[in-house]
Amino acid sequence: MRILVTPLLLIIVLLTACQHKMKVPEGDFTIHGEVAGIDTIIFEKIEADKLLLIDTIYAVNGEFAVSNSLSGSAFFLLRTTDGEGINVLIEKGENLEIGGSRNGWAQNYTVTGSKGSDLILALNQKLNAFELVIDAIYEEAKEAQKEDFIDIQERFNSAFDKHTLYLKDFIDTNIASKASILALFQSVKGENILNLQSDFEYYNKVNESFVGNWPTSTHSKLLSEILNLAYAPNFTMENIKGDSVGLNDFKGKLVLIDFWASWCKPCRLANPKMVELYKEFNQLGLEMISISMDGTPQQKTPDMDWKLAVKEDQLNWTQLSELKGWSSEIRNLYDFTSIPHTILINTDGRVIGQNLDHRTLKAKIAEILQK
Length: 371
What we know:
Layout: H1 7-17, E1 29-36, E2 40-46, E3 51-58, E4 63-68, E5 73-79, E6 85-91, E7 95-101, E8 109-112, H2 115-143, H3 149-173, H4 180-184, E9 187-188, E10 191-192, H5 200-213, H6 218-228, E11 236-238, E12 244-246, E13 254-260, H7 265-281, E14 286-292, H8 302-313, E15 318-321, H9 329-334, E16 341-345, E17 351-354, H10 358-369
């Protein structure tokens, strides 16, 4: 039996046969994507401080194609109109293939043809797995008995430490890629996993890479600004004798700053331990500065209260105060909300610890001074 091929049927057959991959325009890089359920994509370049709109892309049955000019490499965001999207790191000459579906696109996408984008995908997958573990531990903690808390805390610490090591290894391995900055700033529950104080080495390592390889990048500027936050800002105020003293007077020294007040009971209870620290480590190189928050509106004689407490508690090191209570400028400069509050500053002027418990603080000081 012969089948009659009408002109209409012939057109349909030809159109069906021609439905291959969408033609991608030429450019310094190209992206071809097939994302089920998507119809419109906002394509933006990611700068350190803003998003720059590159194009609005319209998809046909979830398929889209785009190209653009590019010098070197850059971060881009592909997102739907309701915000669901993915980050990519594209180098000049790369041809990306992106897949997935609109629902949960950020958690379930594929990308090929781009080394930097592959690294971002690996980082995201590792973070997603880590968050599942952390969420499970949080849920377990809600129903846990008191005797189970130690075990739960240990498992949390173990998972956190494992992921921290992964991020550090990622940076070490991929320090020549811009993707290293994403590992540096990866966060969970709104908190950075790598800490500026305890993991300064890695912040500095990524900063040096960006300054050396991409000095004009907005991300290089951001990294430099963040690194500056690691250093203790200088201040000057009068000591108990009325002489002007500044933090810069202690350059090259290991310095422990203690914020306290004569009216603060926890501070007064902690002072004997501060005295012990000074006696044990001053001869080895530790300098201490106590800054009093005396001068609150409730105090009638703040100057007298401060000096008497210094004498009673035998605080025989540098004692400073503006006698302005919580209105002291130093409070805004160091951004603390309660006392006692301690800050440990290394010989380079960098903050290496805040509000450490006495045992940890003592061990850290001993480690530095007894090397």
